[in-house]
Recover the amino acids of this structure.
């Protein structure tokens, strides 16, 4: 079967600080495009939010992770870049410590994640935002 | 030469806290599949371990890196998520600060790493685990 | 249109601590190779520098980010690995906390970055270095 590719965009509305599980939306995009096996790559097109793969079982993991990032990039620090509010520069730091891009193999029309893994858009700003995730798939399509 | 792809899994037995060099295993997988030039992407299918590219020369670099991650995610912190032991939530944080997915160009049947680079599975739990790394290659095969 | 790939290397001269914007050089490489739509993956082939996507508007963001990384990996700590100077082990830690590899979708012959995003080579050593970024593109070529 010959290799093909598909480009797309996923738009996600965040509710301020926190993690939005986009695993189902991503698998749905893969299925609706008729993709079967290959590689899905995501790029979050912003610098104060990021992509994180983390545990989908105990929601306390995400709360503790948010707290840990808060301690590593505290709002109380006297940042030079402060015009956009006290949460903005910490958000850039948290985004740099996690990642804007992720790649996940696709098998059988679904992302080949581990049992306990989900893909999250991590919103590091205090206020809700609309975040764009650019998508790229390369691989094979299903026969149907 | 037309583009092809190959999917696979590498299973790694860790010995608790520390870094397992999987560079040779990855290059072996590339060679056994007859892959020549392209892109190798790895996804560690767990949320308390991660993939790290670091120096392969002085082992003290890995010890200092492990200590640094320990300071950034100390076991002594009163985490909400504590039922799986004091090392578990720090392991999730360390995994989020490093990365579950990595992509490395392949040239001449080997990963195009820098001279001093190796690919490590970083085990962030205290006890040994079996860790799965999903593999995806896209590119060209060797003629043989 | 059938999928093709292109491999390359970008060499970047850094000036010691700081961020070098390589967005234009990367887009130029894409254009000169006649690439249209697909995925660009970069691997920085060193362990004391890294790749970072961050804001290209207010340069204070990069200064605050450098300071934050300095606080997370201070030179004053008594590292085991110290023979290469007090800035070397912190550089390895900063490289591990950010990332050596990044993937960005390409559309219309350019990286599909967000409005405020640029790709930087982050130099974590005090002295200037020549840094190599291995490049891989897979996708389609423009018709011209």
């Amino acid at each position: 079967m010959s290799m093909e590719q598909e480009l797309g965009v996923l738009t996600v509305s965040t509710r301020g600080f926190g993690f939005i599980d986009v695993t189902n939306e991503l698998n749905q995009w893969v299925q609706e495009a008729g993709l079967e096996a290959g590689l899905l790559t995501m790029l979050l097109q912003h610098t104060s939010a990021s992509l994180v793969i983390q545990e989908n079982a105990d929601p306390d993991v995400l709360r503790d992770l948010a707290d840990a990032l808060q301690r590593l990039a505290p709002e109380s620090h006297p940042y030079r870049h402060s015009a956009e509010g006290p949460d903005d520069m910490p958000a850039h730091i948290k985004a740099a410590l996690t990642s804007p891009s992720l790649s996940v193999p696709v098998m059988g029309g679904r992302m080949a994640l581990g049992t306990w893994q989900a893909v999250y858009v991590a919103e590091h700003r205090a206020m809700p935002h609309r975040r764009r995730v650019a998508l790229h798939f390369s691989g094979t399509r299903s026969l149907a």
Q: What stands out?
A: The longest strand of chain A covers residues 130-141. Residues 105 and 111 of chain A are 6 Å apart (CA to CA). Chain A has a mean pLDDT of 97.
